[in-house]
Design a protein that fits this description.
- The strands form 7 sheets. Strands 2, 3, 4, 5 and 6 form a 5-stranded antiparallel sheet that branches.
- The chain is 9% helix and 42% strand.
- With 309 residues, the protein is mostly beta strands.
- The chain has helices spanning 2-21, 129-132, 301-304; strands at 36-37, 49-54, 60-67, 70-79, 82-83, 87-88, 101-106, 112-117, 138-145, 148-149, 153-154, 165-170, 176-180, 183-184, 187-188, 191-195, 197-199, 202-203, 207-208, 217-220, 226-231, 234-241, 244-245, 249-250, 259-266, 272-280, 290-299.
Amino acid sequence: MNKSFFTLLITTILIYSCKKNSISYFDQVPPSNKQQLFAPSLVNTDSIELNVVFNATSTEMFFSRIVDRSFVIHHTELIDGKWSTIKPIQMYPDSIAISVACDPTITQDGKTMYFLGVDPKNYTNNVTPDKLYTIPPDIYMSKKVNGKWQLAKKVEFSISTEYLESYPVVVADGSIYFQSNRPNNGERKRSTYRAQYLGNDKFDTPVIVNSKEHNLVYYVSPNEDYAITKDNKKFKIAYKKDGMWTPSKEIPLNYEKDLVYTCPYMSSDEKYFIFSTRYYNPLKKGWVGVEKGEVYWVSSDIMFNSDKN
């Protein structure tokens, strides 16, 4: 009798634990090895969306949406087992009518967000989109205080400079990877940098990431054992061995030639690969010509089902 009761108790605890620790993806049917739209009508709408990421516990989701010519980060939180209504996060003062906030990345404690932003001091509220999108972006930071994301501030030198900085990715120890076209050894080309976190929102001098192929890095796993790059408009994955990145291997998606693939991200349980696509009007250049932006997800088996060697 006691043994039966004990067995029932353990089974109940295990079932409850599994439910408690399971990750919710808006009741979607998990994708197979063929990419599918992520959260249609919630994330993917008639607007242009990109950059879906979660916090480390998968209890808060973020993505970017273009609203009235502004790039606006939106989010939703998992509260008592239900996702809250998706809402925008205000990153700049009310006086800023048009703004840029995209490519969010969240620290492991869920309390700090870094993102790509454009300094409002470099333009006026009547700026045209084609002009706004040519201003070199910087890396910005927002803190979550008492459950609310605060107005952002620029992460100062040596992260943000007069040159272009983009695609921030924060890893487990708080360090940041990002892209920049700042001068290096007399050359000025876009490269990937890593800035070691020193604590108290301070970083060491960024250093260029060593890569055998010199591809730009768009995502790095929290423990920095693999990175996602792009080559010939396709995603590739590389693994770190002995402090160096191995030659990268193409991620076998169903690539369409008219789309730009970007914003790669791995779910915290590493079960799903999430990415964005953009379609450009061939008669227009840059973000002004983007007519469609969507977010997809696919099983990570397509990446991890073979040896890492």
